[in-house]
């Protein structure tokens, strides 16, 4: 056992980013499957509009907007990787880092991505905006995760109307 942790040089170093191409392939397959299963509109997005604070290059952006339920926006990055924005405010990256120190395994990254999307599609996402914080909770077979972000004074005005958003399940096609 290595109790000292990874080599400090391993942070920020990615020796084989191509191993994450299967994550991109899985996301593309997932998008096609969801379009076939659900009453959802698929459109091509723009990374600058859909991910305005993301600084890395994007290859493609795809929006899935259901007639009911939380929207999903997939951004394929040239890393290769996938960033998913879901609901109104939350996003996750797959892989979350990709560096040698984190040593994320592509098959586990795909499982995490599929679990997240499934949880959103079955209506397990709740978001809450107040004048002081932004909170989101996502539940699934893996458990539950919550995020809470404190807001600067007045910042809530740029995010939308305060309230609780309980996203319903996506309707089948």
Outline the secondary-structure elements.
Blueprint: H1 21-37, E1 40-44, H2 47-50, E2 58-66, E3 72-77, E4 81-86, E5 90-94, H3 106-121, E6 125-129, E7 133-140, E8 143-150, E9 163-166
Antiparallel strand pairs: 1-2, 2-3, 3-4, 4-5, 6-7, 6-9, 7-8
Helix pairs in contact: 1-3
Tell me what the structure shows:
- The chain has 173 residues and is of the alpha+beta class.
- It is built from 3 helices and 9 strands; from the N terminus they run H-E-H-E-E-E-E-H-E-E-E-E.
- The strands form 2 sheets. It has a 5-stranded antiparallel β-sheet with strand order 1-2-3-4-5, covered by helices on one side. It has a 4-stranded antiparallel β-sheet with strand order 8-7-6-9, covered by helices on one side.
Features:
9 strands, 173 residues, 3 helices, alpha+beta
Give the gist of this structure.
The chain is built from three helices and nine strands; from the N terminus they run H-E-H-E-E-E-E-H-E-E-E-E.
N to C succession of SSEs: HEHEEEEHEEEE
Rg from C-alpha positions?
17 Å
Shape: globular
Strand content: 25-35%
Q: Give the integer mean of the pLDDT values.
A: 91
Structural class: alpha+beta
Q: Give the biggest beta sheet.
A: 5 strands, antiparallel
Low-confidence stretches: none
Report the span from N to C terminus: 51 Å
């Amino acid at each position: 056992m290595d109790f000292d942790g990874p080599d400090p040089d391993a942070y920020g170093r990615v020796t084989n980013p191509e191993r994450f191409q299967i994550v991109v392939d899985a996301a593309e397959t997932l998008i096609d499957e969801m379009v076939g299963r659900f009453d959802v509109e698929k459109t091509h997005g723009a990374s600058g509009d859909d991910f305005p604070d993301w600084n890395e290059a994007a290859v493609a952006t795809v929006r899935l907007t259901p007639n009911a339920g939380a929207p999903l926006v997939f951004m394929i990055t040239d890393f290769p990787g996938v960033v998913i924005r879901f609901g109104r405010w939350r996003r996750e990256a797959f892989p979350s880092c990709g560096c040698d120190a984190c040593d994320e395994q592509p098959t586990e990254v795909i499982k995490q991505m599929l679990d997240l999307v499934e949880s959103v599609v079955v209506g397990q996402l709740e978001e809450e905006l107040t004048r002081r914080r932004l909170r989101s909770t996502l539940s699934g077979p893996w458990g539950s995760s919550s995020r809470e972000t404190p807001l600067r004074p007045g910042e809530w005005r740029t995010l939308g109307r305060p309230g609780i958003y309980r996203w319903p399940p996506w309707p089948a096609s």
